[in-house]
Amino acid sequence: MIAFIARHLIPRRSTAATGATVLHRDVASSGVEPAKAAVAYRSPQPVSSDPSIGVIGGAAFGLLAAVLYTGANVALRGSVNINPFLVSAVKAAPTVICLTPLLAWMWARQKTLYTSLAMAPRFMLVALIGQFIGNAAFQWALGSIGLAASVPITLGTLLIGGAILGRVILGEPVRARSMIAILVLIAAVLVLSSPDASQIPSDSTAPIPTWMGALCAAASGAAYALFGTVMRQSMSRGLSAPLTMWISGMVGTISLWSITTVTVSGEEWSALTAQQWQTMAIAGIFNFTAFVSLSFALKALPVVAVNLINASQVAMAAIAGVILFGEPVTTSLVTGIALTFAGLCVLANRKHRRNRTSR
User: Fold this and answer.
1) Closest CA to 286 of 104, 54, 26, 4
2) Which ranges of 109-136 would DSSP assign to H, the alpha helix?
């Protein structure tokens, strides 16, 4: 099983065009996801099609990833009455637990884990930002504005920040169609951030108003954008994908558990039920499993197809928020989600045209 997972997680060189954008909420699945929505990740070494999976299998894995990410988000939404740092700490643990034996297997078989560690300190710092501002802030957002509004705000800000940071840090071009998509996504974020787009969940313990919850969701997306950009830079300068994922998960596990021991009182610890622990653990397990499923999908399907399948998380989050948690359906919410989809379609169409031209 470890060998099977490793074969799909370790990127292989391909003749495909470089710079393919992959929407996938937590590039590292280290909890920097949060399992919340998709993360814009540009693979430094795009992978080629894997005939052993097939198109139908690839589509199934892509849909499974979207469902699992949504399941992780639902579990996080169900944990809004728990300390956000504790929720994020528990969610980060499965990545370390699952990847540690994988890295040990790779090391024992003399697989390349890194060619240079020069980027490791910088990546660890950014991973810390991703864990605290990305995961913890997203949890605060869920407790303030709910699931249906938090996911599109985070995703929209992530894509906007990814384009800007890609230009500033990596020198990547921002084309006219990308600018149009950015403007549409900015409009979506502004609409979803309006006071009438959502309301504070009745079971939340977050003592913050809705406007601050929207700000937390946007900050979470910006942190994920920074994390994704530096991760791409680190992978292109010597760190392997499994190692970056493990580093991020380990940074999150150590730092978040440390802050949790300080911020969570004895009464809060004793008040936690077995069901609450299970819900937090499920969020982490679903998040990591979703990343693995997405990796399989990318072996068999074009990036655009995986993007569109994975973007269905926005709709799934809205449906889950309304049906499972009774979140209100408002004009601002529907408009903001529609604008988010429009921005995603513009980005997908840009990539589709570029791929057709390259042929």
Assistant:
1) 26
2) 120-129
Grouped pLDDT means (10 residues each) for the chain, 359 residues: 46 37 39 41 44 75 89 94 92 92 92 91 94 91 89 87 84 79 85 72 67 91 91 89 90 93 89 95 93 80 67 86 88 87 73 49
Gap between the Cα atoms of 232 and 170, Å rounded: 9
Pairing mode, strands 40-42 and 21-23: antiparallel
Closest CA to 246 of 11, 19, 66, 32: 32
Give the CA distances from residue 52 to residues 5, 224, 299, 300, in Å, rounded to whole numbers and listed in that order.
14, 32, 9, 8
Domain residue ranges in the chain: 2-358
Q: Which amino acid is at 252?
A: G
- Burial code (b: 16+ CB inside 10 Å, e: under 16) for 268-277 equals eeeeeeeebe
Cα distance between residue 234 and residue 311, in whole Å:
26
Under 8 Å between Cβ of 152 and 316: no
User: Please, which residues bridge with residue 114 across strands?
Assistant: 239
